[in-house]
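Two records follow; treat each independently.
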Amino acid sequence: MLKKKKWIFYLGHLLRMSTVNKVRLLLTFLGLTTAVFIFAAGSIITESVYQSSLAPVEVMKENTIVVSSENNITDVKDKIAKFLKNSPRDVVNVYEKIMIKSVEHERDKYIFVATDLWGVRDINGMAVASSNIVSCVPLETQIIRGRGITAEDLQTNARVLIIDELSEQILFPYENAIGKTVQFNVGIDGNLVSDDDGRSEEEKFPIFEIVGVIENSYFTNMELLRLKNIFSVKEQGNIRILITAYCPFTTVLEMYESDEYSRRLVYEFQNETAYKRGVSSLQFASDLNPDGKYTFVQSTKDSEMSFLKLRLESQKQMLNTITLLLCIISGISILSISLFTVKERIPEIGIRKAFGASRLDIAFQFIFEMFFVSLFVSAFAVVLSIVACKLAEGFLSERYLIAIKVSLNERNVILPLLVGVIVAVFCSVIPSLYASKIKVTDALRFE
């Protein structure tokens, strides 16, 4: 019991000695806070940018497979049907962005609205979109007004459109778009623009009726953010807005030549088990293709995510390395502060050695003091970095309309805390060893 009390007294004495010099404590606090703050904030920002870069793939609907091929997609579809019983959704994307509206917002400055046209078999529960990372992204969606695409629409090649909420606001502000019509290839002041290729007026400038409105997707929200950023600038030139619209895929096949669109198959599965079986079946069908006639590529959320992570990993490692180097540079300042502490306390070291303190006792004293201070300062710096990143997120979103969501996890909290403590303790080892080797006579004569 007496030994336990001695240790409690001894540790309490060390804690008091670590905070008795306010100047030294302040310098240690500033140096360590800077180091841990840089590392913690850098880790959070790196992880947040990394996760934001993955978002275009992260929104891809679970348990879906997109099949594309340079060969005849119908032949590929028949080939796959021998191995996979699921019926795919046909999706067709027109290469050219189609002009559908223009408005003069200033003198000789216009807002041009074009559509990324997709032909689909069905849109209930799932839509598709394209990005600069993945050319075809299946998305979960819901129809909020009107109807979807029916079997009759497919049979009659109906000229009907389904748009999202943002497209409705752009084309028909403060109005219900259901029942309204839009005309393709509309230029400035309503002038019709198209190549003179021998087609009839109805074929070159088709009119589509809007029959449904779906909820905004991730890509639509990104386009909305881009538009807010554009309109926040005082001096504006011509503004181009790209919306997404869906029609029966048979309508696209009828209106356009085969070299004017890309066609894909989207397979959807009820659960992960069926999805994995589907991936295996498609891989087996792809392998049994010695002559290359039915060559196809399957794209899944997992495969696209793996590819994107591999591409981003080097950038992430580089940013983490820079952050760690800045932390090490800050650690050098901690080393200097520790040496300053030892120099200042040489008389104290001499007195302790005169009363029988060993080298280990002296070294342990300085290391423990730094451990105690670094633990609390690192915790403070981590909390400060989280608050700063959250404030920066709100500021960038409101002021500069930059969509970066702060990503917090256990690694972003625990790792900076450990790094702060480890760097501080490591940087105090050399000064502690130096202090332990000071002779009693030298220490007592030191002024």
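The next record belongs to a different protein.
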Amino acid sequence: MNVRGMGAGDGFTFSYSEDGRPEMVSLYGDMLAQMGSVSAPEAYLPADVNSVWPAIRQLAVAGDPALENILPAALSEQVPGQFAVLDPVAGMHRPVDPSSVTDVGRLTERRTTNLEVGYKGLLFGRLAAGIDVYYTRMHNFIGPLMVETPHVFIDSAAFVDVLTDDIVATSGGALDSATAEAVAGSIYDEFRELPIGLVSPEELQNPTDVVMTYRNFGEVDLFGVDLSLTYHFNEHWNISGNYSYISKNMFRDLDGVTDLAVNAPRHKFGGCVQYLSSRLGLDTRLNFRWVDGFPMNSGVYIGEVKRYAVFDLNIAYDLTSSTRVALTVQNLFDNRHAEFVGAPEMGRLAILRVTQSF
């Protein structure tokens, strides 16, 4: 199996059967072609077990010749396949409805409309204040890299029920239902892990290339607020703070296709206390950052970023008129946290710099 990240280009088109159900290209295609069941190894097949049963039967009999006389040449009832999409992060498949498979249109550019109003000024001679309120509407929003080609697996309950009845019938009643069910269950266990096919687009049409690509979505709109305040106590001391808010950071079931994450928190806050003395050549700052948790969906990086709070310390001192020493300690209290899904946890980081001017 190959996982391919691809641009949408001219888009991707899937093949559908008469009932509107997506069709698949099977990993058993070579066997089926040799047996004369299909015209070509990469031919489109209905997404059910019936279409690949001749190959499964042949493999089962090769492993246990005694099955030759009890396995039916064809299943008597349709056994629909179970659709499941690969989760590249978790390394597992997640069930999806066949209706979630839709053609991927040609990717077009995103258009963004922004309306913003703000104020920035000095109040009471000491308080610097700023506020921005904005509204954003994005047309043809480009979503995250997503797996668009689900695999098709054997549906255990339907397969075992149908095959049990067929084994009883094929054996002419020589095997009772309990024995036939045990045989059917063992065959399911043997082939359950291997997908019987892949819903592959016509532009590729093969059973091994899982496609990850981008889609355009209709419209996404949100509004937000940015606030900032700085109070100057005197020429040496000041304190500041800022707050940001966005109305939405997750759009559920957008266009009926997927959840779309903005990859940003709805709330975040920062603060700073500063002492500055030009006479002493000293500049010290203690910064605080609080970031709310938020959902992420960016390529293979899907999950939840947990909220975190960190302090950063900055001290700079002029040893001479041309030499400055600066110490920066990020995450002062060593609050280990991840700021991005897939990124390592961040702990304390101290950096010492010496700058010499000539």
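Discussion point: The helical segments are 29-34, 53-63, 156-170, 177-191. How would you locate this feature using only the token line?
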